[in-house]
Design brief:
Mean pLDDT: 79
Largest sheet: 4 strands, antiparallel
CATH architecture of the largest domain: Orthogonal Bundle
CATH superfamily of the largest domain: MetI-like
CATH topology of the largest domain: MetI-like fold
Number of strands: 4
Structural class: alpha+beta
Strand content: 5-15%
Helix content: 55-70%
Order of helices and strands: HHHHEEEEHHHHHHHHHHH
Radius of gyration: 28 Å
Shape: elongated
């Protein structure tokens, strides 16, 4: 008997395999694929990731501590490392020697440059000791000048390095916004979930409470509560108190969105089936209703960050938020709210650039997530 081998079946075209992968992918895979194609959102994500990473290890990336002073260089201009000057080219970056003096006529601070002096910038130098992440004690800094100082963003009127303070301020401002958003997010899930699932008089009572909180003017409320902080409170206590305030007054918007979705979904067949099967209301809300629009909750969560950051910055700027020696963007901008600073030390406005950058990055990230999470987004 002769056996005839069958010819192998032709492989599926690449386009068909791509379509099969797309139509069988999970919702999270679809969101990620759409998000990767959103270049502006990816740029915002990268910027925020860098800010979080650098600020988390601020003690290592900053050449000095946030309160460390250089009394010989008060209100000094930024120093830009260079690799060449009139004396030739150097393979190692260096800065020229600088000092500050008073103009004999105007008595204003002026920077005097000594082009003949080179101070070389080195990496992994030893400086003031610190605890990395609060655990590892070390004194290694990413860069610095042995036997001298380098101030990339200049110094303030007390001689403190602005670059180092900005890194520490970034950690404070981002973290206080994160704590406030997380607290408001949890409250919104609980309150909005109960209102949307229970309905009736429970929903009515919660909506009236939500309206009361929404009509309270936010900035005067922040100012009043911040002014009520006891003066003897430590900076840590003020920090957590501000986070609690931001969270307590920031939940109504998301809670109403969750409530509206649950009101629309609680009559669906899968919810009724779960209720008939004996599932408790908490399980129905947590396991069946909320996951049906998790992507939108995440988008709302991301978009809430800029409002928390701007609130903290505004309160600290006017002196009703965090106080020195705490370091945040708002605390640093307090030193830049006068005509003298605008004229003589514009580099003290650098923290404002970081505020704008963070808010813009969060906005782009939120827009990208919103577009990627759209269930009616067509395949392109």
């Amino acid at each position: 008997m002769v056996t005839i081998d069958k010819a192998p079946e032709p492989a599926a075209p690449a386009a068909d395999q791509k379509n099969l992968k797309y139509y069988t992918a999970s919702q999270w895979d679809l969101v990620w694929w759409r998000f990767r194609r959103h270049r502006a959102a990816m740029a915002g994500f990268i910027v925020l990731a860098l800010m979080v990473f650098v600020s988390t290890f601020a003690e290592f990336f900053a050449p000095y501590g946030p309160t460390e002073r250089n009394s010989d260089y008060l209100l000094g201009a930024p120093q830009i490392p260079k690799v060449w000057d009139a004396n030739g080219v150097s393979l190692q970056p260096f800065i020229h020697g600088l000092s500050t003096e008073r103009d004999p006529v105007t008595l204003r601070q002026i920077t005097v440059v000594d082009p003949e002096v080179r101070e070389y910038v080195s990496f992994f130098v030893r400086g003031q000791s610190y605890r990395l992440l609060g655990l590892i004690e070390t004194d290694i800094r990413l860069f610095g000048v042995r036997g001298g100082h380098v101030h990339l963003f200049g110094t303030d009127e007390l001689g403190r390095d602005v670059y180092s303070r900005v890194l520490h301020a970034t950690r404070t401002s981002l973290s206080i916004g994160s704590l406030g958003v997380v607290l408001s997010f949890v409250l919104a899930l609980i309150i909005g979930g109960i209102a949307g699932y229970a309905g009736g008089w429970v929903d009515y009572a919660i909506q009236r409470l939500t309206e009361v909180i929404r009509v309270i003017p936010v900035i005067p409320l922040y100012m009043g509560l911040a002014a009520a902080f006891p003066r003897e409170w430590s900076n840590t206590q003020v920090y957590f108190a501000m986070s609690m305030i931001f969270g307590i007054v920031g939940w109504p918007t998301l809670a109403r969105r969750i409530r509206s979705h649950l009101l629309a979904q609680r009559g669906e067949d899968y919810v009724i089936a779960a209720r008939v099967a004996g599932a408790k209301p908490s399980r129905i809300i947590a396991r069946h209703l909320l996951p049906s629009f998790t992507s939108y909750i995440i988008v709302d969560l991301v978009i809430s960050f800029p409002y928390m950051i701007l609130s903290e910055t505004a309160l600290s700027f006017i002196g009703l938020g965090l106080r020195a020696p705490s370091v945040s963007w708002g605390v640093m901008l307090q030193d830049a709210q006068n005509i003298r600073t605008i004229e003589q030390a514009p580099w003290l406005f650098i923290p404002a650039g970081f505020v704008i950058l963070a808010v813009l990055a969060f906005t782009l990230l939120g827009d990208g997530l919103r577009d990627a999470a759209d269930p009616y987004q067509v395949k392109s």
